[in-house]
Design a protein that fits this description.
With about 450 residues, this protein is of the alpha/beta class. Helices cover about 45% and strands about 15% of the residues.
Length: about 450
């Protein structure tokens, strides 16, 4: 296979959410012409003016470069984008419903509109995370309306929020789900510039490709939940989860990734994909006991830091104020979906406590979800003013090396509850803090 495409391609991306915008910007950056479509006029106007609706490091640079070099366009006109393109990526939202199944109504509407506006053979690519078998569903939706041939491809994304640009430009692997060799070759040509170091482009059937995305995220979620449960056991028996992690991670069969104990996983992928995989299993008359246990463990873990707070202050937190550092579900993103901070703050308030919160980028999103449950502060040290103790929920880099003397002189009690194990036990002893972390002995002063 050649290292890159001989000719640039014309691509339409339907949906300018997280996946669609990253994909569109990255495809444009390798020389393709990309038309990003959305139904929201305000979003399209903002993007045309260089305003990025999500926080993702490096995305603004790619969007600015793509638009200035006339390779990246934003439009409300699906018909124009489809007619000008040979490959159409479906990147609309598939939010979870109460029963755990993804809502495919946006995908259905987009598929039907694409079918009506096709002016020749097209490759239709499901980039959104969709249930197993959705490639057939999309094809069925399009069939009564399309006047030209098309192939529906499953091409799941494996992006980590906070490092999505690097993940897209330098993927571990690219999964292409199609039965047609010509379609696979066209898709492989499109992705060739991203795998010049030899990482594989894997050709498989569409069902296996759809299942691969759910399998990966559910497996990683299970690793996290396993470590969180093990961390709670360490707290009971006097072990140190950080030492256990190091002992585990040097086993080549296990590796070092996703072995960190913490306050629970969140975001747009793990919770939704775990629920969707369980829903698929139930539809086929079986249960995924391990995956279900991982979800249950994560639900409990999000409340565990509050349990530690109650160990120190008692079951009532009335009259106590807590500084919360970090609101987003992980650093380098403003995504609040399923964030542990939502559960932690809700539990503190229910127990009578008050919250002063700070996050470097997600304050606006957090305030919409939490409303008046917290006071939102301009800086991390502003959040400490009037607080009894500090609670760390998100591991932003700016929280890793701080002035402990200043923290101690600002908060009422020298107490830190660390949901991400940012500091060593020795640091906390020397600084004179009572320190509760995840899966490690309590430091007491």
């Amino acid at each position: 296979m050649a290292c890159g495409s001989e000719f640039s391609m014309k691509i339409a991306v339907i949906g300018t959410g997280y996946v669609g915008l990253v994909a569109g910007a990255c495809f444009a950056d390798t020389g393709n012409t990309v038309y990003c479509v959305d139904k929201d006029p305000r979003k399209i106007d903002a993007l045309k003016n260089g305003q990025i609706p999500i926080f993702e490091p490096g995305l603004d640079v790619l969007v600015k470069r793509g638009t200035s070099e006339n390779r990246l366009f934003f439009t409300l006109d699906t018909k124009e984008a489809v007619e000008k393109s040979e490959i159409i990526f479906m990147a609309v939202g598939t939010p979870p419903q109460p029963n755990g199944e993804p809502d495919l109504s946006y995908l259905k509407a987009a598929s039907e509109e694409v079918a009506r506006t096709m002016n020749g053979p097209k490759i239709i690519v499901n980039k959104s995370t969709v249930p197993v078998g959705t490639h057939r569903t999309v094809a069925d939706w399009m069939k009564p309306l399309a006047k030209h041939k098309y192939d529906v491809v499953s091409n799941p994304e494996f992006l980590k929020e906070g490092s999505a640009i690097d993940d897209f430009l330098k993927p571990d692997r690219v999964v292409i789900g199609t039965h047609l060799e010509d379609t696979y070759k066209k898709m492989a040509e499109l992705y060739a510039p991203f795998v010049r170091q030899g990482n594989p482009i894997i050709w498989m059937d569409p069902v296996s490709a759809e299942l691969t995305k759910y399998a990966c995220n559910s497996f990683l979620a299970t690793r996290i939940s396993f470590m969180n449960e093990l961390a709670q056991l360490c707290e009971k028996v006097g072990g140190d989860i950080e030492k256990v992690r190091k002992g585990m991670s040097t086993d080549v069969r296990i590796g070092r990734h996703f072995l960190y104990a913490g306050a629970g996983y969140g975001g747009s992928c793990f919770p939704k994909d775990v629920q969707a995989l369980m829903s698929t299993a139930r539809k086929n008359g079986m249960e995924l006991g391990i995956v279900e246990a991982a979800e249950d463990a994560n639900y409990k873990q999000k409340k565990h830091l509050v349990t530690r707070i109650c160990e120190h202050y008692g079951k009532s937190l009335s009259g106590k104020t807590f500084a919360i550092w970090g609101l987003a579900f992980k650093p380098n993103t403003d995504d609040m979906r399923e964030a542990a901070s939502l559960t932690i703050i809700d539990e503190i308030v229910k127990l009578g406590g008050k919250v002063r919160a700070f996050d470097p980028v997600s304050m606006e999103n957090a305030s919409r979800l939490l409303e008046n449950k917290a006071t939102y502060c301009e800086s991390s040290f502003d959040a400490l003013e009037g607080a009894d103790a500090l609670v760390i929920v998100t591991e932003w880099n700016e929280f890793r090396q701080v002035d402990f003397a200043k923290i101690k002189s600002t908060i009422k009690d020298p107490v830190i509850f660390d949901g991400r194990n940012l500091y060593t036990l020795e640091q906390m002893k020397q600084a004179g803090f009572t320190y509760y972390s995840i899966g490690r002995p309590v430091v007491r002063v």
